[in-house]
């Protein structure tokens, strides 16, 4: 069974992005927007670990900690905070939190701290490599001379294996699965990041540039094409 995470974060973009990242990492995630919902879910279905934003409307993360600890609930709690002063971090630990991550954070740090908390509270559990929640229906995805193994998170162009980051792999997989179809910016942002960063964002263009440099060998045709004003399409011309 996958480890269960209760995530409480009032910022929609952060909540959706972190929920998606945790799910892809193999956790079973319940995401809520405030402390009231967090307490209700924690009482109804206790999770293996809680991830709480400190600053939330109504009941904030610190109050959620205090309530759960006063009830004798020892579920590990990881706090997300934009507050960097030592006194603020001490306040969180005194309220009953087990650890904290300061915003803006690297999602890999969140994963590492969650693994450490779960090992600490359940030493016999294997938490370093969570089991995937879903298995792709086919072993390989192929298009335009590209072959991808979503289970092993490996990709090749011809016989050459590509060294891709997590986000690069997910972006390329989306394009390969929709080869020949023009995907607009909003769709890609929603599928990869869980949130549309708006027309002024360069985030997608940056990652497409990363992929092109890794995909396109000298003399080989370009695979990812820009459709101006719309988005991107994968095709071999």
Automatic annotation (TrEMBL):
InterPro entries found in the cross-reference section: CheY-like_superfamily, OmpR/PhoB-type_DNA-bd, Sig_transdc_resp-reg_C-effctor, Sig_transdc_resp-reg_receiver, WalR-like, WH-like_DNA-bd_sf
PTM 4-aspartylphosphate: at which residues? 53
Please give the superkingdom of this protein's source. Bacteria
Which positions fall inside the Response regulatory domain?
A: 4-118
For this UniProt record, give its keywords in alphabetical order, as a comma-separated list.
Answer: DNA-binding, Phosphoprotein, Transcription, Transcription regulation, Two-component regulatory system
A biological process term (GO) from this entry: regulation of DNA-templated transcription
Using the UniProt record, give the first listed, main subcellular location. cytoplasm
The record's subcellular locations are:
Cytoplasm
Segments traversing the membrane: none
Gene3D superfamilies, A to Z:
3.40.50.2300, 6.10.250.690, Winged helix-like DNA-binding domain superfamily/Winged helix DNA-binding domain
Residue limits of the OmpR/PhoB-type domain? 138-236
Positions of the DNA-binding region: 138-236
For whether the record's keyword set contains Ion transport, the answer is no
* Gene Ontology annotations for the cellular component aspect, listed alphabetically: cytosol; protein-DNA complex
Q: Which GO terms describe its molecular function?
A: phosphorelay response regulator activity; transcription cis-regulatory region binding
Please give the name of this protein.
DNA-binding response regulator
- Which organism is this protein's natural source? Streptomyces aurantiogriseus
Name the lineage: Bacteria, Bacillati, Actinomycetota, Actinomycetes, Kitasatosporales
Q: Which gene encodes it?
A: mprA
């Amino acid at each position: 069974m996958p480890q269960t995470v209760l995530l409480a974060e009032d910022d929609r973009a952060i909540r959706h992005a972190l929920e998606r990242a945790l799910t892809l990492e193999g956790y079973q995630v319940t995401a809520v927007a405030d402390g009231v919902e967090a307490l209700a879910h924690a009482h109804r279905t206790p999770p293996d670990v809680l991830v709480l934003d400190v600053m939330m409307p109504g009941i904030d993360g610190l109050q959620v900690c205090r309530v759960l600890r006063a009830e004798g609930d020892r579920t590990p709690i990881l706090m997300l905070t934009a507050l960097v002063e030592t006194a603020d971090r001490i306040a969180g630990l005194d309220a009953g939190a087990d650890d904290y991550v300061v915003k803006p954070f690297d999602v890999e740090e969140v994963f590492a701290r969650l693994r450490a908390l779960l090992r600490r509270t359940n030493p016999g559990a294997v938490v370093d490599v969570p089991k995937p929640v879903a298995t792709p229906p086919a072993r390989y995805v192929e298009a335009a001379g590209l072959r991808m193994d979503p289970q092993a998170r490996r990709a090749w162009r011809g016989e050459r294996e590509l060294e891709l980051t997590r986000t690069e792999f997910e972006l390329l997989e989306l394009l390969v699965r929709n080869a020949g179809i023009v995907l607009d910016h909003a769709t890609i942002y929603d599928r990869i990041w869980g949130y549309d960063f708006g027309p002024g964002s360069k985030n997608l263009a940056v990652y497409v540039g990363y992929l092109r440099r890794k995909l396109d060998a000298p003399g080989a045709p370009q695979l990812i094409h820009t459709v101006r004003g719309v988005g991107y399409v994968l095709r071999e011309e």
